[in-house]
Design brief:
Structural class of chain A: alpha/beta
Strand content of chain B: 35-45%
Number of strands of chain A: 37
Low-confidence stretches of chain B: none
Largest sheet of chain A: 5 strands, parallel
Oligomer: heterodimer
Mean pLDDT of chain B: 93
CATH topology of chain B: Rieske Iron-sulfur Protein
Radius of gyration of chain B: 13 Å
Low-confidence stretches of chain A: 829-838
Helix content of chain B: under 10%
Shape of chain B: globular
Distance between the termini of chain B: 12 Å
Shape of chain A: elongated
Strand order of the largest sheet of chain A: 3-2-1-7-19
């Protein structure tokens, strides 16, 4: 089939991001042509300020070099300005000033023409030495002027103006910032924060003239600009005037083609203009009356637009909440949302004037709606996420001000030397203790490779890609390096993987409501992009299938991680570890003798006692596994699965002089009930016989603590990456109740938890109140949950016994047998068939 | 003149799975994909030597079980942004028999 033609007008961040997203979805759908008015390939415009400040070079900020266009078969015309769209003949006409005009036909047209700086309409605005701050040419003009001139005046104290002023100051100029309002950055900051910011910029050497209106620019004898005159009659010298008084969407081309424009090219939720063949994204587009001038919304638009261009049509853009961050080294300012407050809102304010810290959080109806941070912006990313998600913050209100680390820390306990604030870390400090990645390496990768999200940083640097303990730190580094362009990954709505747009909740729901019973059915019904998924989605889907439809859905061993297929735990050298089950941590001399015999017979190099009160035999060859299991004669310990692992117990009243309950018997009973249970992630229990809690019930998924009058149940504890103390669920009296409540809690987790979500994260997501409501308060529901779990576990076989007794089909037991060494050489006739084989 | 060896019947390799062939130069993983194509790679990930035969097979790729690198079955090359390559052996199926060139 002949490819359709896509023409992109605008070679900036929005246009090319859309092309990148499109190539991910439908790499072969279009023949793509890109026109750029600037003579450069696509570069990261938000990093022009570090270039001006001398912290980066132009080469550093290129996002897609020319080879990228060639590799993807994209025709790139740089230095060519499109001057006309012929909507009847469906072509664009570009002109580079000399030679014949260039034409390109389109089936779909994408306008990403960006914006134009607003030049104050004052006399003298066309003098030499008067420029805007928009592109590489402007930046180069400023760098050149700084080398030969002294006085710079920046008109406009917004984000761009201050960054320009700071850069010029660093290049040795005497800089005055002129602003029409009473305080700087009035669109982003309240007056308190603005005054603090101004004081710190003044300390760096910038001068400010506030509430000043420019009347005209005066020429010097050279003909170049020489001074700025204000309406009050005063004048200041100026060899360079930078206009940073705002931007206007660049709509002239669209308007000349008769497209409806109103403060931007008007687009729908699918980013289509009034001509449905023509799309617009980025600063030139007006969506629901707003034209965005920041990078993050452009990227969101790009995603939706690409989805539509790829003919999937399931994306909708519904506007963005934006945040801003000033990129001036040594000054930290952040703001987002409605930071000025107003009727119906309330403020929480922390103001330490001498310490140089100001934080204002604006709350409306228990939700964070705005934030201004000055001096310490480490939590900006977190506040922004709360704001975007519209999460109820009433429960953490008293410590909201103290940030993520206090309220809800994503940073794990270990692996980064106890640091919880990335800003305070040196470049050489190790952020990711698993993969040995330093802060400087992450910052460099973000800048040089043009990374904008946590996933991208994980892929390129490996930081935060193993245990995830440092995720919070990496997010902080992203936020501080990119400011408003940082794409916060929304944990609740993130797609399962690259094979789909659907998130875990949506996939679960579809499997339930459409009664999908196999992976193939899921791929078909939910229009998976890949023929058979990937290593991320397949294990998740397989779990959702078997947990939603026990005894009905197909369990696909090839979609399980190797440990669950081999029923043992793979080690770094490809050998396996074997942990036989010891119910409640109890064993017998006979079992110990068999374990000892196995260890000797199979030359097991390491025998170790585990944290869950079991014995681990490490270093067993895969082909020996079935024989090892047979000789052990014990059930699988499931130490390898997203499943019930262990129930750890203390001695209890059976022997202990302090014990109040029979904790060992309770533990054994719980473990037997749960044997063979698959779950979203591993599940560990503990039963202690008294409040001394020797079984460490406080850091388990379910912790049971015996007291004289019964049992206390705690849930959602965790002892690993980040220690989380289990929360009190309820108190019960009888053994039967311990079983029922535990089963019900685990079943709700099994039914509603997302794959690889531990109970602690599940409960954080849905709230303990919800869990209590379903498991504690509603007796009928509790009973039903327990029954569903027991039904799912009915007839569950011991996987080791099955395989040693030959009760599994040969295709599964073949897993453990290597093929014979191939010896038979097959002779070939010229290009022909082989001779007798079988 | 090719030196093809008979390895096993196609049906002896699970769909989206693999079998291991012992070899003097190091084990070889023979993969069967969902579309019944076969591929053979040295059974060692270029990253840290993980046994690729134990990985999850999807499309024409395998994910190493140790640290999740994705390798192209047809070339042995790691998928971006990881960089590395493991040895590939020509493999094909004829009359339901898997053949390997050694």
């Amino acid at each position: 089939m002949k490819k359709q033609k896509l023409v992109v007008v605008g070679n900036g961040m929005a246009g090319i991001r859309t092309v990148e997203e499109l190539l991910k979805l439908a790499p072969d759908l279009y023949e793509i042509t890109v026109f750029g008015a600037e003579p450069h390939p696509n570069y990261n415009r938000i990093l022009l300020s570090p270039v001006l400040a001398g912290e980066m070079t132009l080469a550093d900020i290129v996002l897609n070099d020319r080879a990228w266009y060639a590799d993807n078969g994209i025709t790139l015309h740089t230095g060519k300005k499109v001057t006309r769209i012929d909507r009847i003949k469906r072509k664009v006409i570009a002109d580079d000033g000399d030679g014949a005009p260039l034409e390109a036909a389109y089936d779909r047209l994408l306008l990403a023409t960006g914006s134009l700086p607003f030049m104050l309409p004052v006399p003298g605005n066309d003098l030499s030495g008067v420029i805007a701050y928009r592109d590489i040419a402007d930046t180069e003009a400023m760098i050149a002027a700084a080398a030969s001139h002294r006085h710079a005046v920046v008109i406009g104290a917004g984000l761009l103006g201050l960054e320009a002023a700071n850069g010029l100051r660093l290049r040795g100029m005497d800089v005055t910032v002129v602003h029409i309002s009473d305080w700087i950055m009035e669109r982003q900051l309240d007056q308190t924060a603005a005054d603090m910011l101004q004081a710190s910029l003044e300390a760096k050497g910038l001068k400010f003239l506030l509430a000043k209106q420019t009347e005209m620019l005066l020429a010097a004898s050279s003909g170049r600009v020489g001074a700025v005159r204000f309406k009050d009659g005063s004048e200041i010298p100026a060899d360079l005037v930078v206009m940073a008084a705002g931007i206007r969407p660049s709509t002239a081309l669209a308007e000349s083609a008769g497209l409806h424009c109103q403060r931007g090219i008007v687009v729908s939720d699918t980013l289509q203009t009034f001509d449905p063949r023509i799309y617009a994204v980025g600063e030139c587009a007006a969506h629901r009356g707003t034209a965005y001038g920041l990078v993050a919304p452009l990227f969101e638009q790009a995603k939706v637009c690409a989805n539509h261009l790829a003919q999937m049509g399931i994306g909708r853009y519904q506007g963005s909440v934006t945040s801003t961050k000033l990129k001036v080294t040594g000054v930290d300012v952040f703001s987002a949302g409605n930071f000025t407050g107003g009727d119906g809102t309330e403020d929480i304010v922390l103001h330490d004037r001498n310490g140089g810290i100001y934080k204002r959080l604006v709350i409306e109806k228990d939700r964070l709606v705005g934030a201004v941070l000055y001096g310490d912006t480490g939590d900006g990313g977190w506040y922004f996420q709360l704001l975007k998600e519209g999460r109820d913050v009433s429960a953490m209100r008293d410590h909201l001000m103290f940030g993520d680390a206090f309220a809800n820390n994503h940073v794990g306990d270990t692996g980064h030397a106890g640091q919880s604030k990335a800003a305070a870390m040196a470049d050489e400090a190790e952020v990711c203790g698993c993969n040995g990645v330093c802060k400087g390496t992450i910052v460099k990768a973000i800048r040089e490779q043009g990374l904008f999200s946590l996933e991208e940083v994980r892929k390129h640097t490996k930081a935060s890609s193993s245990c995830g303990s440092c995720t919070g730190l990496v997010e902080q580094i992203l936020a501080s390096t990119l400011g408003g362009a940082y794409q916060v990954s929304d944990r609740t709505t993130k797609p399962v993987c690259g094979c789909t747009e659907l998130n875990h909740g949506e996939v679960r729901e579809a499997i339930r409501s459409q009664k999908l019973l196999s992976l193939g059915a899921v791929f078909d019904a939910l229009a998976w992009r890949t023929p058979d998924g990937c290593a991320t989605c397949r294990p998740a889907l397989n779990y959702y299938l078997i947990s939603t439809w026990p005894h009905e859905a197909e369990d696909d061993p090839q979609s399980r991680f190797i440990n669950e297929r081999a029923h043992a735990n793979i080690q770094k050298d490809g050998t396996y570890s074997v942990v036989p089950r010891m119910w409640g941590g109890l064993t017998t001399p006979d079992e110990l003798r068999r374990i000892a015999d196995v260890a000797e017979k199979y030359h097991v190099p390491t025998v170790k006692v585990t944290g869950g009160q079991r014995i681990d035999l490490l270093g067993i060859r895969k082909e020996d596994l079935p024989a090892v299991w047979k000789d052990l004669g014990m059930p699988s310990g499931h130490a390898y699965g997203k499943s019930i692992r262990t129930v750890k117990t203390c001695v209890g009243t059976e022997h202990c002089r302090f014990g109040t309950q029979q904790s060992m018997a309770m533990g054994v009973e719980l473990e037997k009930m749960l044997f063979g249970m698959w779950s979203p992630h591993k599940v560990k229990l503990a039963v202690s016989g008294c409040p001394r809690n020797c079984a460490e019930s406080g850091i388990k998924d379910i912790g049971v603590i015996g007291v004289d009058s019964g049992w206390e149940l705690y849930v959602a504890g965790n002892g690993g990456i980040k220690t989380e103390v289990a929360q009190f669920l309820c108190k019960v009296t009888t053994r039967e109740e311990v079983l029922e409540y535990s089963a019900a809690f685990l079943q709700i987790y099994r039914e509603e938890g997302w794959y690889l979500e531990r109970t602690v994260h599940f409960v954080q997501r849905v709230g303990l109140d919800y869990v209590k409501q379903k498991v504690v308060e509603d007796a009928n529901n509790r009973h039903a949950l327990q029954q569903r779990l027991l039904y799912a576990l009915q007839g569950i076989a011991d996987p080791w016994l099955e395989r040693t007794q030959g009760e599994v089909p040969p295709r599964l037991s073949a897993e453990f047998t290597p093929l014979p060494v191939p010896v038979e050489t097959v002779e070939f006739a010229t290009g022909g068939r082989h001779e007798q084989l079988a | 003149m090719s030196n093809w060896h008979k390895v096993c019947l196609l049906e002896e390799i699970p769909v989206r799975g693999s079998r291991v062939v012992p070899h003097a130069e190091g084990s070889i993983a023979v993969f069967r994909t969902a579309d019944d194509a076969v591929f053979a790679l040295r059974d060692a990930c270029p990253h840290k030597g993980g046994p690729l035969s134990q990985g999850i097979v999807h499309g024409h790729r395998v994910t190493c079980p140790l640290h999740g690198w994705n390798l192209e079955l047809s070339s042995g090359e790691a998928a971006a942004p990881d960089i590395g390559c493991t040895r590939r052996y020509p493999a094909r199926v004829e009359d339901g028999v898997v053949l390997l060139e050694l």
